[in-house]
């Protein structure tokens, strides 16, 4: 039977006893409403640790005032059975009062890598993400924590924080899990109408287009971006929030693709904001 833990005290005591008995703890932090992308991270966690802990927490500090905190999809019972089906040992499911008790006032700011992309569009977002992840790491005490490359800037931010603050755990990034037609899986895909769902394919198709330009030998970021931009501008319901090519190390814009670079984009499809990315030179399993 999967164990459900709701308090910080119990989580810390439980993890401490796992550690004392020599077990390796792997951890997958999530906001719930699981899809196969989440489950792939859990499958990886199952392989890489002796005890697999998953957290479900919709973290208010990473949402802006006009964002979808209230309507973010939630279904604990469904999540519990999906987690059970991939062999999760513990779900940590804390309340807001547990996570941010009265008088809470400590936050973590990761500097340069959070300035661009989602950092520009969603002020305060990465401060919330870094803070909640640091807190969860202190509660769950994992040896290894697994994140998706789908949220590429988030992964870079967490790796930076862990290195800078000498946190004693390993961060692993996993490839993006996609629907058959290429759409990156996301809990937010449920917001899309049938017509919007079709338009949402413009994100993965943009990545494919950029990859093709790159493979033809194009190394000018501006020309690759222009070709993708023209394409998205003709897709119904689509409005570009950002579309950039950045260094994977600094997350700053690049003009020429010489070091390792990532094309990152955020596109509103109707009122739903979706993100996706492609690291040039890597595989992209899109037909
Ligand atoms: P979320 O619940 O959306 O905060 O995501 C929890 C974790 O799952 C994060 O590390 C995400 O990067 C990861 N994730 C979300 N979608 C995908 C996907 N399609 N493929 C792989 N990992 C994902």
Q: What is the structure about, briefly put?
A:
The protein is α/β, with parallel strands linked by helices.
Principal-axes geometry comes out as globular
Number of strands: 9
Unreliable runs:
none
Q: Radius of gyration over alpha carbons?
A: 19 Å
- How far from one another are the termini? 39 Å
Proportion of residues in helical segments: 25-40%
At CATH level 3, the topology of the largest domain is Rossmann fold
Hetero groups: adenosine monophosphate
Tell me what the structure shows:
There is one protein chain. The protein is α/β, with parallel strands linked by helices and 287 residues long. It has two domains: 3-174, Rossmann fold; 187-279, 2-Layer Sandwich (Pantoate--beta-alanine Ligase, Chain: A,domain 2), CATH 3.30.1300. 37% of the residues lie in helices and 19% in strands. The protein is built from ten helices and nine strands. It has helices at residues 8-20, 36-48, 76-85, 96-99, 118-121, 125-140, 152-164, 194-199, 201-215, 221-233, and strands spanning 3-5, 25-30, 51-56, 90-92, 144-148, 170-174, 238-247, 261-269, 272-279. The protein has a six-stranded parallel sheet, with helices on both faces. Strands 7-8-9 form a three-stranded antiparallel sheet. α7 links the parallel β5 and β6. α6 (125-140) crosses α7 (152-164) and α9 packs antiparallel against α10 (221-233). It is globular, with a radius of gyration of 19 Å. The N and C termini lie far apart (39 Å). The relative contact order is 0.13. The model has no long low-confidence stretch (mean pLDDT 98).
């Amino acid at each position: 039977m999967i164990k459900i833990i709701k308090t910080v005290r119990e989580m810390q005591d439980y993890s401490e006893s796992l550690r004392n008995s020599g077990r390796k703890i792997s951890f997958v932090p999530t906001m719930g409403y699981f899809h196969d992308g989440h489950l792939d991270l859990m499958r990886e966690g199952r392989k890489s640790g002796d005890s697999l802990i998953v957290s479900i927490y919709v973290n208010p500090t990473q949402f802006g005032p006009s964002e979808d905190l209230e309507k973010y999809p939630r279904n604990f019972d469904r999540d519990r059975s999906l987690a059970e089906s991939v062999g999760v040992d513990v779900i940590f499911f804390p309340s807001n009062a547990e996570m941010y008790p009265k008088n809470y006032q400590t936050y973590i700011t990761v500097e340069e890598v959070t300035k661009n992309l989602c950092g520009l569009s969603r002020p305060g977002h990465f401060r919330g993400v870094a803070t909640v992840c640091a807190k969860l790491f202190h509660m769950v005490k994992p040896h290894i924590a697994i994140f998706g490359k789908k949220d590429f800037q988030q992964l870079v931010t967490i790796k930076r924080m862990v290195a800078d603050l000498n946190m004693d755990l390993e961060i692993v990034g996993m490839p993006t899990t996609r629907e058959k037609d290429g759409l990156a899986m996301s809990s937010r895909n449920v917001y899309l109408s049938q017509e919007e769902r079709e338009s949402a394919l413009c994100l993965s198709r943009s990545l494919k287009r950029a990859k093709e330009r790159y493979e033809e030998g194009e190394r000018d970021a501006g020309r690759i971006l222009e070709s993708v931009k023209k394409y998205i501008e003709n897709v119904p319901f689509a409005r570009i929030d950002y579309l950039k090519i950045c260094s994977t190390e600094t997350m700053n814009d690049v003009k020429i693709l010489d070091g390792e670079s990532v094309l990152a984009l955020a596109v509103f499809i109707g009122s739903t904001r979706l993100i996706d990315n492609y690291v040039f030179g890597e595989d992209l399993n899109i037909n």
